[in-house]
């Protein structure tokens, strides 16, 4: 900001920066205390098998409900958590809670349900995530074969060698790995060949215009075909309409998540859904 635009303008700018960093600090403090105050919770979104309509799994999605304040969306606090390193203990809480939930559903007599957990860049690249996952599997009694870990394409490409090694360790434990938000980064499908990946999740941005935009339709089609040629399972994210679902069905997409089936819900909602499916 140039001082030439006038004294007032300049001081407004400074005041504004101050307000921004005060809010930033307040958020950071609140986020720091949130774990201890048990302000985090997980919602779960069903992952549906397109051919059969069965719920084949759920994705755990983090929510923050600060005391006396409305729910904060992940996009409004995960970047800050990532920046401050708080994502590591928070991510650890997410992993443990999702694993414990998986075990709890089983103990309540439900059929096994695959649980997917999102890993942040810092969690995946910065700490010994394979060792942490192993410790939490042992602590919770969760079966690794029913756990999927999601990482984004950009995380893979930040340090491909380290990522490949970590993924090999996780895959050897029986954990499945999925690439989240596929298509938003710059990696080609071919470059994914070196990683032990089980599923590819097509980013919501390609799905939303599928039935209007011929380019998006072509991209989705190509991703499904190539992924299948590499023996990868394909999941479409953010499916909102029956037209989108019909397109995905017709083009052989394996699974989907989206508001057209269910929003992310509390654990009890998933239990009700699974019981209804069993009774049907
Ligand atoms: P994601 O992993 O790609 O999760 C999918 C997001 O799409 C979720 O947003 C979900 O609520 C939303 N979604 C699902 N179906 C639809 C739909 O039909 N339409 C629309 N418009 N949206 C849909 P959410 O829960 O706000 O999470 C946003 C992102 O925050 C996630 O994207 C993930 O990157 C991150 N995140 C969430 N939980 C965690 C976590 O426990 N750890 C880490 N590291 N990141 C997380
Ligand atoms: Mg995800
Ligand atoms: Mg995604
Ligand atoms: Mg996303």
UniProtKB/TrEMBL annotation:
This is Diguanylate cyclase DosC. Residues 24-278 form the EAL domain. It comes from the Bacteria.
């Amino acid at each position: 900001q140039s001082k030439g635009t006038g004294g007032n303008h300049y001081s407004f700018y400074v005041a504004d920066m101050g307000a921004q960093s005060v809010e930033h600090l307040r958020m950071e403090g609140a986020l720091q205390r949130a774990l201890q105050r048990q302000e985090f919770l997980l919602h779960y979104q069903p992952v549906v098998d397109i051919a059969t309509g069965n719920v084949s799994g759920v994705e755990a999605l983090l929510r923050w409900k600060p005391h006396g304040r409305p729910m904060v969306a992940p996009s409004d606090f995960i970047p800050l958590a990532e920046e401050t390193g708080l994502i590591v203990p928070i991510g650890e809480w997410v992993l443990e809670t999702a694993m414990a939930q998986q075990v709890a559903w089983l103990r309540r007599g439900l059929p096994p349900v695959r649980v997917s957990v999102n890993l942040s860049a810092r969690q995946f690249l910065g700490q010994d995530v394979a060792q942490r996952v192993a410790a939490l599997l042992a602590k919770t009694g969760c079966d690794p074969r029913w756990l999927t870990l999601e990482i984004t394409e950009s995380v893979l490409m930040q340090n491909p060698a380290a990522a490949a090694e970590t993924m090999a360790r996780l895959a050897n434990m029986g954990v499945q790995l999925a690439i989240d938000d596929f298509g938003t980064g710059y990696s080609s499908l071919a470059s994914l060949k070196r990683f032990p990946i089980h599923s590819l999740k097509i980013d919501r941005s390609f799905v939303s215009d599928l039935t209007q935009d011929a380019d998006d339709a072509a991209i989705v089609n190509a991703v499904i075909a190539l992924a299948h040629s590499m023996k990868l399972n394909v999941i479409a994210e953010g499916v909102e309409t029956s037209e989108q679902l019909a397109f995905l069905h017709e083009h052989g997409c394996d699974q989907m998540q989206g508001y057209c089936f269910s929003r992310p819900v509390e654990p009890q909602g998933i239990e009700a859904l699974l019981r209804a499916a069993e009774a049907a």
